[in-house]
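Throughout our pipeline, every protein is held as a single compact record rather than as scattered files. The remainder of this section carries one protein's record, kept here as part of the documentation.

===
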Amino acid sequence: MNNCQLLDIEFEHNGQNQIITPVLIQDEQENILVDCGYPNFLPYLEKAVQQKGISFESITKLIVTHHDMDHIGSLAEIKRAYPHITIIAYELEKPYIEGAKTSLRIEQAKSTLGELQDEAKNQAEQFIRFLASIEPAPVDQTVINDECLPWCGGIQIVHTPGHMPGHISLYLPSSKTLIAGDAVVLEHGKLNIANPQFTMDMEAAVSSVRRLLDFEIERIICYHGGLFHGNVRQALQDLVREYKS
């Protein structure tokens, strides 16, 4: 996995210690960042990249897996500070990232307001305001399902809907590595569906996991949980079986 660096970023959010794992994919010409954390995370990212012996100025591209707040929160800040970085996203995601369409998470949260009691409703409204405050950012290049980007030994775009309709994962055939985004998460050493209560289409999410079985994957990197250690194929099969039963 020598062309793939995990950037484990530890921080406190809502009073809890959390870790996210953006990824840096590299070759002689390219330093490609995958996802970029919450708003105001640029200093965290700069430090994490520097610890790998790389200047953030050398980042050439930033691929976004989907438009959740913890994946695009710092996108506009990064583009402002480093305008040379090419922002890449799946075609369905572009209008949400650029602000032409309302975030699907906002729509989802609004749909629950009528069912909530006062305290929970206040929390949901606060969450909606936070989501609405995330600054839109321009998408310089869109990609489609099964497209193979020519950098770093090839980066295959794998449309993995469910968590969100436009969610993508990235397959690196040269190292048989899957960057999963939120298609799956790693919890207590076990792969699982990311935030089932917030997954927009659970059937599609499970189908996406099933589709990953078509790839020869030796390593899987989850945005939440980091690098999975174990038999990837068996773990994916177990996850599909769990949601079938």
Q: What stands out?
A: Residues 105-135 form one domain.
